[in-house]
Prior knowledge:
disordered N terminus, five-stranded antiparallel sheet, alpha+beta
Amino acid sequence: xxxxxxxxxxxxxxxxxxxxxxxxxxxxxxxxxxxxxxxxxxxxxxxxxxxxxxxxxxxxxxxxxxxxxxxxxxxxxxxxxxxxxxxxxxxxxxxxxxxxxxxxxxxxxxxxxxxxxxxxxxxxxxxxxxxxxxxxxxxxxxxxxxxxxxxxxxxxxxxxxxxxxxxxxxxxxxxxxxxxxxxxxxxxxxxxxxxxxxxxxxxxxxxxxxxxxxxxxxxxxxxxxxxxxxxxxxxxxxxxxxxxxxxxxxxxxxxxxxxxxxxxxxxxxxxxxxxxxxxxxxxxxxxxxxxxxxxxxxxxxxxxxxxxxxxxxxxxxxxx
Length: 320
């Protein structure tokens, strides 16, 4: 089990790296999608508030100066603009009109950043999302003969758009969380399955190293592990066939060597145990020499066979 643990740990490290990389991608996509959604809603709100501010400023065209009376007349004509607050100031930044009934800024300086920038002659818009509310602020200058004589300031707290942003971000987060959970589960399953396949291959290799060439890997599929198992089975088949051929060769060689050795043994025993004349002795010794020559020829043939098996394919040539 200790030998196989590094393989399993390597699969786990690969799965962990894959999970980390994919999680970073999901986090990026989550933040990017949420930011794009907010930007689209911000632009929609910007268009709406600036159009309303331009509507108010255009209502003051032809007015030489701003005061409480003409400001009240313009607002009464426009009616409800469906925003949270509308403030109209003069060139000094003093509020001439404030739609808030409580804590009204009329008669006081309105030193908002939007008002200050609008007094420089440009339209201003800021917006941000917080706690389920889309808070938007817009300001536009009231211009007479190319110079600002006042400013229109509009603020709006939109709970409906804030709820849309909140719902979208919640849904995106849930989808990302579900994808991450599925990815983690898939990675763990993949790591376990691949580690099991590798464990079976390593076990079979150890058995083959011990000489059990008859062992086969039963593995289905056409992936790399399946192909590796198939090649391993082919290798063990060849090793088994080679081992069987080697055993058969040793058996045949032993049988061939046994015959002349038995003859030499019989002849020597006959010489040692019997009284023979010189002619018979020479005949027995000649037979022993013939058998020794036979053994020498067999040894030379075995040596030639061994050399032939070790010769490279390119060194062979066909002869008649």
